[in-house]
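Recap from last week: sequence in, structure out.
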Amino acid sequence: MTPVTNTVRFVLDGRIVEAQGKRRTTTVLDFLREQLQRTGTKEGCAEGDCGACVVMVGELNAAGTAVDYVPVNACIQLLPTLDGKSVKTVESLKRADGNLHPVQDEMVQCHGSQCGFCTPGIVMSLVHLVQEVPAPSRQQITDSLSGNLCRCTGYKPIIEAATRACMRRSELKLDDSADIPLLREIARSKTPTLSLDGEIIVQPVVRTRKGNEFVSPATLAEVADYLVKHPTTTLLAGSTEIGLQVNKQFRRPEHIMYLGNVAELRQVTETDRLWRIGAAVSLTAVEHRLAGAYPDFAEVLRRFGSPPIRSTATLAGNIANGSPIGDTMPCLMALGATLVLRCGAKTRTVPLDQFYTGQKRNVLQAGEFIEAIELPKPVPGQVFRAHKISKRFEQDISATCGAISYRLADGKLSGVRLAYNGLAPSPCRAPRLEALLEGRAPGDVKAADLDAAIAESFVARDGLRATWAYRALVARNLVLEFIEEPSPEVA
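Predicted structure tokens:
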């Protein structure tokens, strides 16, 4: 792709597709349906909730020898994010000999489709699963379907179809050998473009006549340089928030910067003391990395949306969005996470519990962005507990999520850090409750004392997700549950 062509290039089933002159906020779903007539991909909610639009987006692996796929909600992904990647839709599954993929075939045999509207998305979710796990458990199958809503079948025949398809293990892998050389051909540059004076020039993927741009830098230096020059730029990672704004609020940001191609931001590095999680690392990657050390955190992440949402959404995006009911922030605050903020060549660190200044407000300065999250590793004797309360167990917004970290010293609570969402204009720690718990034996903590501390700490507010009375009761009961039978995460 070159700046003069104003063209998004991606690979679809062994050929390069060039999307020229398209609006920078065109969704992948709209382009597939309206321009390529790939009408198997459906629009249900246009919010990333129903899963009718699921497709697979692929990138060359590190060795350049195979394609790594993630499931994606095409309705909220912006077309320019596909530049240099590949796409598989439900139409891609048909074999050269005309046969169906085993998942499709077994869906027919097991009567897994009735009205059929949701079926292509369900099939794509299951096909992605069997690319990664050829012999999944029932739990893995149901988890992979947690973002696909079906109002006809009750899921039993769908799960049966997935189980039967996996018995045909040799047929499950997609043949994408023709895509690999084409992905090499359209690969985006990994080095910045420099002017004759040595200044960075961030090449746009899409530029309008008015000068509005969609840029997709490859290096951290490009990100920092562009934001200094265009501090009001909208940063795009998973598109799980911006996609909603485009579809529901018809927002058209003047400058959009996609972070998904910046290698430095997609890395997780570690020391003996902490993990450093880049701003473009997906929630799925974070979930897998933390599952052994902090299983409660991993479970909160597992219930964060659906697999297509978690495969694109990022930890830094959830933090920067600053929703009062953001799920990850209570866990991170309880664990003492800090943010690495960058503006130009300068960086500073800010504890996450000092990042928010109000509802949807934070300490970020003009041109500054989150470069990484530093998360401490567990220490001997540390207990970490977290739980999310919501109306639906799967794929729902929190009423309240609480998290706590502490140690037991001589049978008494020590080093207590407690945080919540849903109780204040932004996720926050609860210092009065921490002080109440510090130095006490778990059995000496009284519900009435916790109730009083909660009443002193927060302004009573009813909300769409729950009344204040319910949230306050849940906040108290979570503490009692967290300290009832402590079992250290690390021996």
